[in-house]
Records
---
Amino acid sequence: MQTPDSKFFWQYNVSDWVQWLGSSDTGLTGASAQQRYKASLSGRKSRSGFRKDLDLFLGQFKNPLMLLLIGAVILSAFLGDSSDVFIILFIILSTSVLSFLQERNAGRIVEQLQGLISLKAMVIRDGQPQKVASAAVVAGDLLVLKAGDILPGDCLLMDANELYVNEASLTGESFPVRKEPGLIEKETALAKRTNCLWEGTNIVSGTAKALVVHTGADTIFGSIIKSSGVTTETSFEKGIRDFGFFLMRITLILSIFILVVNLLEHESVIESTLFALALAVGMAPELLPAITTIAMSAGARRMLKKKVIVKKLASIQNLGEVNLLCTDKTGTITEGVIVVNAVLDGTGNDSPFVKQLAFWNATFESGYSNPIDDALRQMTVGDIQPATKTGEIPYDFIRKRLSIAVETGGEKLLISKGAFTQITAICSRIRLSDGTLKAFDTYRAQTEDLYAQYGSQGLRVIAVAYKTITIGNPGKAEETDMIFAGFVLLEDPIKAGITDTLALLKQLHIDLKIITGDNQNIARTIAQNIGIVQPVVMTGKELMRTSTEALTQKVKSVHIFAEVEPQQKERIIQALRKSYTVAYMGDGINDVAALNAADVGISVDNAVDAAKETADFVLMEKDLSVLADGMREGRKTFANTLKYIYISTGSTFGNMCSVAFASLILPFLPMLPKQLLLTNFLTDLPYLMVASDNVDEEQLDKPGKWRLKVIRNYMVVFGIHSSLFDIITFLTLMFVLKAKEATFQTGWFIESVLSELCILFIIRTHKNFFKSKPGGSLFLLSIAGLALTIALPYLPFAASIGLVPLPPVYLGTMLLIVLAYIITADILKVWFFRHFQGAGKG
């Protein structure tokens, strides 16, 4: 016999699988099951908890930016600058510990998912039913199932009796699914594989016997667990990593060049080395981790006030870049509950008579609890006639209908509701709006057209029929010659306020795509109801036939991905991330992999615990308008982070270029190593306040975008501009003012610190700096830094750091150069951001 393809096991006879798995009608032997279980354990690699924690902690230092900062600590220690050693070391350790704790807590996702699986399962072994731990169930076991059981593996049905399964956690389908043995085509969507049972789903009603085909990591549930354990590098994290590598290369090249030039100029080897190392320390953006952490913490506090829990601080940065929101439908855009949309007669008009029939049928039904009957029982019926139940014909898969016999004031009725085709098959007459009865064949085409129309609108349709009977407790034989009464239309309603929220997100330039396991017609209708015009739909079956390369292009034009499987959701997100920064919002087990794969994962208040644990944000209220506030918070944090990156790279790169030039023309060092380190100290504290700075509304209108090319361009443009004024300062001090060594170094020290503090006010806004109000703390600390810098040469300890008092004409000249620097930098800044058309926004 040809070996079946285990990946598509639903397309084969169960008897083939019984043989291939070495099982039988009496199940596995106990010895065989034990052997298979041990074999599965041996294939699992395990590490001790300590080793996992240690690996995770050490992994925090692999970031190139971290390596650069560690290098700065070593260099600072070598230079004897203990203050920088402790400051940078504190930043490194606090950031690493915080990140470690966040990632360690994320490891609870797997435990949460495992905890959802039943602890015990009934299997047949050695011909006898027995209970075993769910984890001990192996491929080839025969499961005996009843209502309430949770599946411990992916199975193929052998026998089933009125079996209904809740698969909402995997497919998003709100209704229980009817299951029966049989063969299903290979490419059938997950929600339509009626001969299969899936790990993690639960039996709503009925009984069954099933053959276990997959367990553990081989199941769909297992693949979700595996996906949740994979850390996905987000857009912002990739940007920081690229920026770190870029900065390391620039620092290394310029430091070596400056060292070589100074040595060739016959400067002291020790002094030249210390000078080059001090420049390298100055180039390191040591405040970046602290600034991002402070900015994100402030954003998290503001979002918490709006009842949004930020689970991972770094996700706030990512939120600032998001330009696409992907969301599941059930429980996220919709309420996740079934309600009655309308009750109509056979010609499409509202009908209190049909509503009364449907209400009686649902109220007196005594089978399994289901959302359809729950919705019908909650209808407002009005003045309903008293009725007494006299009989019931239960639902079954062949008939696909449920009939209830009632007595109302001496009249006995048989009321049937169920699938449209099965109800119309037993009808010979139809009741019209005026109560008259006509031959059903005359109206059959009209009712079929209405049924198709309601289905295309994304509504679940069931039909209702009735007839007068003479006996109190009829059987199936009585379900003939009935009167077609009308339709019951059911829907999963859209959440209140979702349309306004999505409109607000659109104003913020956030696109929307729906990813759901539900029916494509229902998904299309939901999309239209929330304002998507002529939505383009792609089904899971189409997705299965589409190559990865083609999918990357196709996903851009698709609005709805319907009838998709959990692992397909993850594949869609990965394809979309090649063109967008993606936020994914979901609430079920079927969303866990996609939540983990997205740049930002968002869950809601009624989500399963596993989805909440995986998500970066959890919305604690159903008012999804807080998403818009969250996007703005993310953009504010992102904007302030980029401010520091722009400022630090531009000014320090400019200084290094200036020093390289000065080394060629000066007979001495343009600034002492300790003066370089003092420059860093005086600018660091005001720079730290960038995290709480105000952000212009114009920068919050669109998503931020991490573009290393723009940062490089900025560094070059403003580095050259900064160097130009440094060179003007050098030439003025050297050839116009005839400054000696100490005076020269003091003059450049003042010009350098003042220009670095002033550029902060210029670069913090894309407008002219006097049109934008800075944050209070940033303004006060910068002013204090400016005053202290000017006063330093005149303080008693100035000589110990190589500074000397400047004559008024020298100081005035330095201030004029700084003023010219401010004016030209502001003009250049406005041109730069206009030229790149918002590329630097954020």
Note: The chain has 29 helices and 23 strands.
---
Amino acid sequence: MKKILISASIFALSLTANAQGQFISDANYRNTVENIFKERVKTVGKTFYNTQKEKLTADEQEALKFLYAYMPLADVTDYPTSFFADNVRMAFKAREEMPWGKNVPELLFRHFVVPIRVNNEALDNARSVFYNELKDRIKGMSMMDAIIEVNHWCHEKVTYQPSDARTSAPLATLKTATGRCGEESTFAVAALRAVGIPARQVYTPRWAHTDDNHAWVEAWADGKWYFLGACEPEPVLNLGWFNAPASRAMLMHTRAFGDYNGPEEVMLRTSNFTEINLTSNYAPVAPIDFYVKDSEGKPVENARVEFKIYNYAEFFTAVTKYTDANGHTSLSAGIGDLVVWASKDGKYTYQKVSFGKEKEATLTLPGGALVGGYGIPAIPTQPTGSVGALSGGALVSSAPAGSVGALPDCSVGALETSAPPKCTYLDLVPPKEDPQLPYVSDEMHKENQRRFALEDSIRKAYTATFPTMEEAKRISERGAEYIFKSRGNKQTIVDFINRHSDNEDRVMGILATLSDKDLRDITTEILEDSYNATTDQLSPRVEDELITIPFKQYFEKAFSKKAADAFRADPMKLVEWIKKNIRLNPDKKALRIAQTPVGVMKSKITDERSRDIFFVDVARSLGIEARKDAVTGKIQYKSQGVHLSQVHQPTNKEVHQKTNKGVHQPTSIGALETSAPPKEVHPKTNGEWQDVKFDNTADKTSTAAALGTIMLTYEPTKLLDNPKYYSHFTISRIENGTAHLLNFEEGQADMGNGTTWSNTFKNGYKLDAGTYMLTTGTRLASGSVLASNRLFEIVEGQTTTLPLEIRQNTNEVSVIGSFNSESLVTKDGKEVSLLSQTGRGYYVVGILGVGQEPTNHALHDIEKMKEAFEAWGRPVVLLFESEADAAKFNHDEFPGLPSTVQFALDKDGSVRKQIAREMKLMNEKQMPMFIIADTFNRVVFVSQGYTIGLGEQMQGVFKKL
């Protein structure tokens, strides 16, 4: 991997610490920060910035003002000034006491050491805790060695485990000893900054070649930026398991706190952060200039331009930019394909672009009459009584309501018209893989493995103190599951249960609303607030917001009895109160870290996301049933006539839907992941859900939704009988010219549930009237995608029927199923994961029927293709079903097997059963079984039973991978 170079000499004059010791040496920049700071304090109120009791040096005061000038609104209103003052002091202490402190350039100290926030985590006192733990451990080390040592410390404390999209605070991650990659990288960045090393979280929002994403860390040492896998220490820097996929990424970036002026390409400047492009540090890139014009050919200023990567069966917005006065913006990205989507004032268009092939692209927004945001093309009128055509996405037909609209054929290739066609095929190719790996000797690797094992043992000694299920049951039979899942937060949950043993139902009702992650980091104050509140609305959570300040009892006292009664009688009055008393931040590009409802109430200023959460929390605190709809994100309350004891409380699975099948889930700072579709856990009521619309007039702030039905038709095939949401298709609603994904439940990968064609869309699903886009895709083994988009309308009272078309390519390998690469097998008497034996990449797994003719044929076929297997170079793991089978297998009978073959045991048949289940094999006991899969859990080939020419078939697959 090419080193990430920022020469200190280039910035020697502008970046080195000022001789006078000022935090900001540039007078103009200092004046700018001062003005922004004053405006911020004026906006939120002087009570939120109070340094009277703080003893700050001139430098520390300047740094504190810098933080307040650019921090998200939620940080200003939800944390006391003393908290940030303490962190600023610790940053300067590290600068003074660490040997490299004086060598860190001013620019990097300001933007990558002093800031506390890394992602969308709750803020805590990790800086002081981490500094005290690490300062002696790295004493006397060089800066590069210190980075590696800090990462070893991180691995000693935390290991990878998938979880929901909310990012836990560093100390919460420390407490639970696990985190997804976004949490591991947040943790590692916090640790590095604590000892005065500039660090930043780097993430690819989505990979281009597979349905996954990842976050890691860059740290600065002696004039250069280096990268490392967070909590995954390697012997050297610029090395991680993700070297190869990073070389195929389309976009990798980070967000520098404040207005940052470094050498990197700036993708977006906001009032909180500067988004910078780091892709060229990992892969070849090419630029494209983009021009957005209106229907008359005039440039469109401030058009929103979204750069989208196909991933999880949607076109995910990885980067958002805005056009200048000339309608221009630009982007450098990996040498592959993206979809670029331009919009303004509800009008939109999109097209595929190929970086490295195109120099510029023009997107023309439609003009004239609009249906759903795009121009209405000329469409022949259908005869009376015939099936309606889709005109701009709307059904135009004299057929009766509920009839099916005829669908235009999909267009192929790049879009050439200003208005997107109603159906488009898009073939997308990711960049080629070309990793550059630093040298690591065998001795270095062995020493790193030794340390790895030691650190694992230290961490496991700590996690051994966590409650087992048996211990949890002894404490509380009903609460055992919650105690078990609480890990390092055990005492909080146990004490809460024991404290209120006289009202176990309410305690269990509150705990039932919490996600697994909530159980690991919820505080006593939040639990007690929910318990002691008079409302029967038990859940403290609306979506993925931070729950750091108790609010239910606060809002019981915040309004007069007369006002509270009026709100309960007519929740629209609460909507009107919010519209009248809570200002909206006019800055639409600001980070949407959700404010606490108490912070909103005290500051009287917020953004749309926090306002929505505020409404639900206040309503629930006053006994009004309210929610943020899991699928659509709409804010709703239940109409009158609902008894409080019947109120639906969301379960942990409802609140946190995307556990992401075990994949990494870094969240762009402030990004919102909505929850899963509700499962009724209380009796249904007679009331209807009313939509809250804050932007409507006073008499129309609430209404029952106008609903239509979407029905998808699909003809099951042998390999894909029931397409899955997020794997094969998604639906997005087009609102104000942008696409918003409908977040249906994903389910748990090992349970086989979740949203599919047959259980949700086969017989019709109700959606709000409006414009939508159905996206489908087939991920080929090469990483390429065969995708399609269909724009359609949902009309009130009507059924819109669409074909669920999953495109296939018989000329290239495609993903046909999934297989858990971390499945356990037995080797040399020990349980190990397949991943530990295969390493990253593709591999073959075979289940052998020892002594059976089909197995003998298969192995001999593989022998015939030994040269091809060894040229491919990937592991072949052959599994016996028992020790007896292993003992009787005659290795001498197959002397020509490739050197890449290794043997192990599938003692309980779990691997065989998994292959049979996932591949939908007719007989789970028929041997042999072979699959070709990779460590992203994709299966691209399967064979079972008697097959002649198996080796040749596999060779054909190898050539296409």
Note: The chain is about 30% helix and 20% strand.
